[in-house]
Fold:
Amino acid sequence: AALKPTWSPTQITSALMLTANEAVRDYTGVLATPHDRGAGRVDLARAAHAGLYLNVTDAQFKAASAANAHTLNLPSLGFDNCFGSCGLTRTFTDMVGGGSWAVSATLPAGVTMTPSAASFNVGNGASQALTFTFDLTAAPSLIGRWVYGSVTLTDTSGNNRPSLKLPVALFSSPGVLPTELKPAADVNLERGFFDSAIANLVA
Structure:
């Protein structure tokens, strides 16, 4: 705050999180996941030169619930119900006089991320909304588990701005079983059982 006295709380939060060092190990010596380390270890020198931030208001925080928290414009990408594929949207705002950025991702084998734009330009103080669509269908071994990774925005404008990383945490959902199955009115129950089609589940 002393270095950037005009920055807002969301600008400071974004700068600290997006430029953090994610190479943090847990107490066992294994690389920690975003659930354990958050964005990572703060790097103030890099944070002071962050080029973008994500704005979220106090009112938006207060209005959020467990069901829609993944839609908040936070400098992270988390969702606890990614069934096959899911999309998360974030809006980035310039705070260094404009720039150009390229989008990439680091994810487990079989998991892909497709951004709504592979690269983008923003003017001074301008904003760019991006939707990140994650596809988990080629990674059946991850069903029922959390999938971790990161999405990186790399400065391509030649200003030597630090790369910005959003931690990714997605739960690969197998689907949800119905709480109750009821036979149709015309079903013959003499056999003692009936057939029912169940959709939206991973086989």
Remarks:
- DSSP finds four helices and nine strands in the chain.
- The mean pLDDT is 91.
- The longest strand covers residues 85-94.
- The helical segments are 9-18, 34-37, 44-47, 58-63.
